[in-house]
Amino acid sequence: MTAVAPIVQLAGLRLDRGGRTVLEGIDLVVPRGSITAVLGPSGSGKSTLLAALTGELAPAAGTVEVLGAPLPRSQRALLERRKGIGVLLQGNGLLTDLTAAENIALPLRAHTRLPPPVIRRLVGMKLHAVGLRTAADLYPRELSGGMARRVALARALALDPPLMLYDEPLTGLDPIAAGVIMSLIARLNASLGLTSLIVSHHVRETLPVADRALVIANGRIVFSGTPDALQASPDPLLRQFLRGEPDGPIAFDAAARTEAA
Ligand SMILES: Nc1ncnc2c1ncn2[C@@H]1O[C@H](COP(=O)(O)OP(=O)(O)OP(=O)(O)O)[C@@H](O)[C@H]1O
Ligand SMILES: [Mg+2]
User: Fold this and answer.
1) Pocket of ligand 1, candidates 13, 15, 16, 17: which has the most ligand atoms within 8 Å of its Cβ, to mutate?
2) Nearest ligand to residue 15 Cα
3) Residue 103: CB within 6 Å of ligand 1?
4) 186 C-alpha to center of ligand 1: Å?
5) Fold of the 1-74+199-261 domain
6) Ligand 1 near 91 CB (within 6 A)
7) 115 CA to centre of ligand 2 in angstroms
8) 47 CA distance to ligand 1 middle (Å)
């Protein structure tokens, strides 16, 4: 048996944006097969952290290892590594003049040389995986918000990436659609043997499917552990965050944070 490298490993990571340090001292190991909830107030740096994992944002200091090796520097090698990372962004990003099936086929057309009948089959399987087999020929405008999110999820899965990054996957969905998406994310993680990071401010919907939780605030990781340990924590900062209270140890605007630092 050989030791399997963690799918994500961050050490001493510092991330700057617009000349300002957003996150620093970030150490994180994400085990394969896990679902990690990444929580924290707006502007705390959750999306910035995901940008570092895809290599979209280069670290100001420290190291980023994804899928068992440091992110490559060359653009070409980075694009190759990114095929192993499925990303679902808040806006869905579906092309409006393509059908659901055509949207899902895009990454397969761009990154493989598979013949059209094989691509059609794979697209059918992805649609099936998200429970939308009958929606193949619908255009994005004909889909409900929840269906469109599922098509975007199928497209993120098109190349069978072992690592999935979700940025606010529940935004704009009603509670029922949100529940469907969250359980789909959990089901796919288990059935396809994926590893998932879910950035979300929907604490109540996200924690139940997560094995681990991270809370980011004030420029660092302020909690890393199980959802149960998070819920039970007496830390005033975590209590403030979990209860959604505006006043407390979390400085809610960046200016206040800079002054306090
Ligand atoms: N492209 C950018 N240029 C400069 N500053 C940026 C850029 N993107 C983000 N920031 C700043 O970095 C900080 C963290 O932003 P980020 O988008 O990572 O927060 P977040 O936790 O994802 O917030 P939200 O929950 O609102 O999505 C914020 O202060 C933001 O203004
Ligand atoms: Mg964000």
Assistant:
1) 17
2) 1
3) no
4) 27
5) Rossmann fold (3.40.50)
6) no
7) 37
8) 7
Tens digits of pLDDT across the chain (261 residues): 456 789 999 999 999 999 999 999 999 999 999 999 999 989 999 999 999 999 999 999 999 999 999 999 899 999 999 999 999 988 889 999 999 999 999 999 999 999 999 999 999 999 999 999 999 999 999 999 999 999 999 999 999 999 999 999 999 999 999 999 999 999 999 999 999 999 998 899 999 999 999 999 999 999 999 999 999 999 999 998 888 766 666 665 544 444 443
Ligand 1 centroid vs 15 CA: distance in angstroms?
11
Instruction: Report domain extents, the chain.
Output: 1-74+199-261
CA atoms of 179 and 168, how far apart (whole Å) = 13
Atom of ligand 1 nearest to the CA of 216: 21
